[in-house]
Amino acid sequence: MTTLQSLKQALRQEAERIETVSSIREPLTDEEYSIGFEILLRDSGWITYRDFVVPHLTQLLTPILTSHTRISVLEIGPGPRSVLGQLPLVLRRTVGKYAAYEPNALFATRMKESLSSSSGMESPLPCLEIPPIIHQRPFNLHESESHAEKFDVILFCHSMYGMNSKAKVIERALEMLVQRPEYGIVVVFHRDISLKFDGLACYLTASFSTGAVCVADDDLELDRFAPFVAGFTLQDICKYENLRFAWRKVCRTLGRRDEAYLGHLFFGSPDIMTVFTRYSTSLPDLAAQVPLLKGELVVKNREALSHRPACIVRPTKIQHIQQCVLWALMNHVGLTVIGGGHSGHCRQPNVVAVDMSAFDKVHIVAAGDDKKDPTSKLGPLVIAEAGCKAGGIVRESMAAGFTVPLGSRPSVGAGLWLQGGIGHLARLYGLSCDAIVGAIIVSVKNGRLLCVGHVPAQHRPAGAMCPEYEADLLWAIKGAGTNFGIVVSVVFKAYPATTHGVRNWVIPLMNDNDARFKINYYDLYAAQRLPANCSVDMFIYQEEDQMRLGVTLFENPTAEVNPMTATIRTVLGSERSFKAVDDMGLFETDMYMSEMHGGHGGNKMSSFKRCIFLKDIGYSPVVNLLIKTMKTRPTSLCYLHLLHGGGAVRNVAADANAFGYRQWEFACVITGIWPRGEDGTELAHNVKEWVYKVAEELLPFSWGIYSADLGPGPRDAALASRAFGPNYPRLVQLKQIFDPHNVLADACPLRQIPATQKLIILVTGENGVGKDYCANTWASVFNTNYGNHVVARTVCISDVTKREYAAMHPDVNLARLLHDRDYKEQHRPAMTAFFDAQVACRPRMLEEHFLAVVREAMSVDVLFITGMREKGPLVTYSHLVPEHRLIEVRVQASPQTLRARRDYYGADGRDNDKQATSGYCPTIVFKNEAPGIEPVRHFGVCYLLPLVSEDIQRLAKMVRPVPDFPRPHMTFQHVLGIAKHPQGLEVCTRLLASLLIGGWITVSAIACCETGGFTFASPLAEKVKKPIAFIREAGKLPPPTISVTKSTSHISASTSSSSKDKVIEMEMYSIPRGSLVVVVDDVLATGHTLCAVLELLSNAGIRPQDTVVLVVAEFPAHRGRELLYERGFGAVNIRSLLVFDGV
């Protein structure tokens, strides 16, 4: 997609072609600028604010809120309204002083009106202590400092365009920050991600690469939009008319069209946020302590090369690295580390980069030469410093008769070994990180020098100490090592050097069926049956208008001849080439280096890669996606490399080190290639988009993603939760321990510890009620709320079926199937038939789909799921995710509203959402009738946000787990122990009272059953002023009573005591017939007790639909909701505060 910056350049070039010397450029009038600005913010343009600007501002301002009751804000170039107005109200109330510089007279007037209390509308900043000051002039760089006001926050939100000496502007703004307290910040949002601030080190940076602007493909609209982007008009009316015609053509040529949005043009608008503090000018202090790099450092990764760091330091001794860390800690800034330079995030804009190239020594320690432990059984060791490249390490090791299993390229550095290291020796010896037995690390927590694992005494630097959590740190660096410190050197276990036979075949794929057959054959009959000393890689690519399959067989000649390798050679026939190579020669054997497209090894190409772990590539949806992918590649040079895994990789336990995915068979390297001369162009952008799209489509069928490629960007952050498998939560915790100040913020993202009580919200309802709209809006509410620090995401579960359907039908456009309603309706009959056929073949398919979307959102705190088609989804799915709190929000609308929406969207009026409303009750109902977004947001703020409140997390921590009770291998959650905590009952009572959304006015009584129910019902009844109807065992209440038989509870059933049924009873006239009753209990597990209580209430004349059940803790694994539904109590509204996987 062409970016706005590229469009601007094209428009100006066109103007230079048309205009003559006599033509005079006219700057835009305030009105012309205003019209163009409004176009920019419409539709997709506003998404950048909603999903990037507002969430990041919220996160930045929240810590300031906790430090001070009122803050002062200066906004430079706010436009017609302040972006602060989009922040949560609780944050806006903290702004006590506001000033702005806005040179556009129309914008300044509108700004004053919007902030004025006399405008008839509430001011977006309702708690200003003094009237806002709007300066109708540009920000003055040379204004006297003695007369300048001081501010807590200074904001440049897309307002630095046209400013000269941007670094000087920021320096001037830094002078205007308050001196005490020290939290003052200058925040810059900018649409051109190449923004440079020479001489300044940023406190924080973030990017938003998916931003876009949508403009109508209309002459009048383009005539308003193009001059705004170009920044001028022409004085000569005739020439300007010609220029407008030419500009329309440029916009239509460069704009991307989307079949789902006909009549519109899209342009990329990537955004970047850079945050500065008053410490950002401290680079001279660092330069005085650590040598700076002389000259330019050229790194392999072209994306990293385009980034301009604040400076690059080149430490030559360990003390220099420690001084870098101490400087970063003192000045509250981050660092990046440059090893081999293959990572896209080794250089970041305005961040100090540490070049480790001076640490380039390799040492070999033979068996028995370890002076620390002469009896060590680790055998020969290779000690490699962090500036070494893989080729140098292997070369030095081979000279001593050894080798180390490193990556596929000789130029890769330490970042690869520390995050996995997948190469051609992996099946034989394991991953690179598996061979690590020790390391020397500079702590980014305090700058100390640490020694972890086994480091021979003669190679342990003076002053190195063993940390408190040594085993944890060693575990973490073996698979995620770029996140936990600056590694100085690594100790590898060495293996015997050997030679290898390498055979290549190139097989034409005549059509899709031929491709499916051959890929499936090599997967099933070759790759899965080869011994560990052999491997087979595959390349899917296209050359001379034909898809081809490249096959490379690696054999260890010293091993016994395997029948499977002989079979492969018989089936494939004569190989195209054969080589016998040593371990160093393995680096040059990959087919893409010399065989494909004339060879990619000449350094004339740029590439972008992401790697997905696959197991069964012959599985129909996977192989169909692989084939379909090649048909959509943006350049003929793009390819898929299927690198063989298994063997020794799989022999390591998933939790043995941080690299948690072990069961995959192939690492699918999605490789986008473009000519180097096209760097930064539309083509390069399209190639990257293709790589991400393929990765996202393969991810649901995968065993995870390789972390070595992932950086801090939002698209990688979304993938990172699938990078470490079950080890992700532990890594997140260790990140807080070893890098508490987030010095290494630009490594593979490990976000903060997810909430202990994670929430899944099923958004259900008929077609046309606005389920997706509501879910997206509510997710935005969570993401932008100041106090929860939670991450919310929305997924449509039916998208899984759509992806599988598209994978089986290569002619189907998946993007249109997901986003184009009319296109989806065209395919609905075929999709329905496909869905029914899949369910018939895979009876558990719906459960598989549900678990797949939950698994993909492992790092998310709140997951909204739409597209549910099942009757009673809480009953169906809650036991599958017993550690998650599952609720259902049913969206409803009147028949008139539904008809209007269906007509608007062109639907046929049928209700395809197979839910039934009778006999089943969702958790909450939202009536989506009122127009606009505010009613939806209001519902989210009032009724959904409290579900993840801090009180919920506090309450969960009060429940003590008791292992091996009441039986071995069972964990008892001591819910009644809440009452032992100070304020435990107070917090629990407050939360229980809030669960009844409609209020307590219409409630007649609270019913509770001994013993647990009494504990929590009594304080609740006191709080809401309602009578209690006690339910007890027979014989403990005076007559007259009504009674029922109760089965044993889940605790009784878990012990060896008597499991005889008991009779429970209630006073006959304690609750009026037909009234609304709230049942309170401590737990809901098997549901037997609650069933008996509801039956008792039914006998007393209380209908299920007039009953609400509030429980403190639910244990979904016991399927209590399912029992209640089967016994006829599905209409009872059940709400729980906590969920646990246990008893």
From TrEMBL:
The keyword Transferase does not apply. InterPro entries: BBE, FAD-bd_PCMH, FAD-bd_PCMH-like_sf, FAD-bd_PCMH_sub2, FAD-linked_Oxase-like_C, FAD-linked_Oxidoreductase, Oxid_FAD_bind_N, P-loop_NTPase. Residues 305-497 form the FAD-binding PCMH-type domain. GO terms for molecular function: FAD binding; oxidoreductase activity; phosphomevalonate kinase activity. It holds the Pfam family BBE. Keywords: FAD, Flavoprotein, Oxidoreductase. SUPFAM superfamilies: FAD-binding/transporter-associated domain-like, FAD-linked oxidases, C-terminal domain, PRTase-like. GO terms for cellular component: cytoplasm. The keyword Disulfide bond does not apply. It comes from the Eukaryota. Transmembrane segments: none annotated. GO terms for biological process: cholesterol biosynthetic process. PANTHER family: BINDING OXIDOREDUCTASE, PUTATIVE (AFU_ORTHOLOGUE AFUA_1G17690)-RELATED, PHOSPHOMEVALONATE KINASE. Belongs to the oxygen-dependent FAD-linked oxidoreductase family. This is FAD-binding PCMH-type domain-containing protein. It comes from Penicillium cataractarum.
